[in-house]
Amino acid sequence: MSKVDTAWLRMEKPTSPMMITGVLMFSERLHLKALRKLIGERFLAFRRFRQKAVDTGSAAYWETDADFDLDWHVCHTALPGDASQTELERLVSQLASSPLDHSKPLWQFHLVENYNGGSALVSRIHHCYADGIALIQVLLSLTDVSPVQKKGAALKEAWLKHDGEKVSRKFFDPARAQLDRAVKLGGKVFGKGMEMYRDPTLAGMLAKEGGEIARELAQALILSDDPPTPLKAPLGVSKRCAWAPPMALDEVKAVGKALGCTVNDVLLASATGALRSYLLDMGEDIDGLTIRATVPVNLRPLEHAKKLGNHFGLVFLDLPIGEPNPLMRLELVAENMRQIKSSRQAIMTFGVLAALGMTPVPVQRFALDLFSRKATAVATNVPGPQMPLYLAGARISDLMFWVPQTGCIGMGISILSYNNQIHFGLITDAKSVPRPQAVIRRFRTEFEKLLYITLMEDWETPIVPHDAEDTLRRLVGEAVD
After folding, report:
1. What is the CATH number of the domain that holds 119?
2. Can you give 246-309 as a three-state secondary structure string?
3. Which of 67-81, 106-120, 270-284, 327-341 has the lowest mean pLDDT?
4. Does residue 262 contact residue 256 with C-beta atoms inside 8 Å?
């Protein structure tokens, strides 16, 4: 097992199951027999999914499961009551809180044959198998672009290749030599063990190393811990999942174009506004407050994304929840993203993860706690295929996924585009945010503030935050927030 994959295997704690959890919803019935046949033919074409992860303490490796049983991995689940979104959210929350059985290959599919007039499928795959980009590609390899299954026909259209290439170019395409250097640098730091954080010579060592990667690591180590809010409480073992009704991708693109920023900027600013509104309703004083989210960044060519393994880094993104003006929040998020794109933060964190895979578990836990204290949430935004897809003949109407949160981070924000719609989901620790629905229902409202600004202002001149605030006062008859 690679060093980075080993690190993800060992990150698991009772309060942080290291699973990537996904939900696919279908407009028609999907049957268990057809699903098992599809999984056997396409999912198990990846030999790794017949293997279980074995950790001896000194090393981790993959071992083929001699007792592999497909029926255990692909199972039927029924919802109680009306089998509505509320019941499905409860099921997904329960599954996201339940670790996988480490005596078997670490993945499972749970089929709900009767959901909202169609069906739903919940997938759980351990992060040690691959990162989110790769696993979404694997799941898409199970799909077709028409209801009739044709082996290998038009499947390349279902990959995230073209949209993903755009995303990759927007970030950076680092040289392999830089990744190797980052691993070595991370090894030097964590080789110092539990004393490394207190060691006064660490800054000097990083200064001697020179280069952008060393500077990024030094800056990450001296970042202050994220401020205490109800969003960042001690973790428990129960997770809560929820998702919002999808909204039109074209609307988000139009707003981004008019305001001179990216779709990603608009969506993250909307999420920031939703968190702000939620905290204000709780009576929190958040004036001028900024929290951070870690954002995964792909570090491999997208045409290789369907290969398994973890090949990504993390960057720290400031979310200005203390800023009352929605357009100013957007400008701040966009500027933070521009700075990130010109940095080597992602390469640095990839090196740290690889180095952690070589260290004893106590050092890993210490380092993860050190870095996770610096953020409140994990935020992912994945561009999916912009055409309808079918799985075992059933059309996929909606889909959502969540990556695990590491260390003491208890919130995951997931944004996924599919078939010209944006799907927004939230996973939270039940101790900090027991009802994530109270947050996600604000997402659309926060986006609509930016939409109103775009529609009402003069497009011939730049739209500035002061004008935006006046527009919102005029529209809603009150000050922003």
Report:
1. 3.30.559.30
2. CEEHHHHHHHHHHHCCCHHHHHHHHHHHHHHHHHHHCCCCCCCCCEEEEEEEECCCHHHCCCCE
3. 327-341
4. yes
Beta bridge mates, 20: 125
Q: How many structural domains is the chain composed of?
A: 1
Neighbours of 175 (CB within 10 A): 9
Find residue 315's DSSP bridge partners. 295
- Determine the angle formed by the axes of helices 326-341 and 443-456, rounding to 10 degrees: 100
Question: Can you tell me the mean pLDDT for 160-187?
Answer: 41
How long is the chain?
481
DSSP 172-183: ----HHHHHHHH
> Are the C-beta atoms of residues 426 and 441 closer than 8 Å to each other?
no
Residue 292 or residue 176, greater confidence? 292
Structure-model confidence comparison of residues 5 and 200, the more confident one: 5
3-state secondary structure of 52: strand
pLDDT band at 348 (very low <50, low <70, confident <90, very high): low
Look at the block and give the residue holding tokens 């953020």.
375
Place of tokens 């049957």: 31
CB of 333 within 8 A of CB of 272? yes
**Angle, in degrees to the nearest 10, between helices 326-341 and 465-476:** 140
Q: Which of 87, 138, 147, 109 is nearest to 23 (CA)?
A: 109
Comparing 73-77, 348-352, 417-421, 466-470, which segment has the lowest mean pLDDT?
A: 348-352
Q: Is 261 helix (H, G, I), strand (E, B) or coil?
A: coil
Identify the domain containing residue 166 by its residue range.
Answer: 1-481
* pLDDT tens profile 401-414: 898 877 788 999 99
> Taking the model in full, what pTM does it have?
0.81
73 contact partners, CB below 8 Å, separation of at least 6: 39, 104, 105, 107, 108, 109
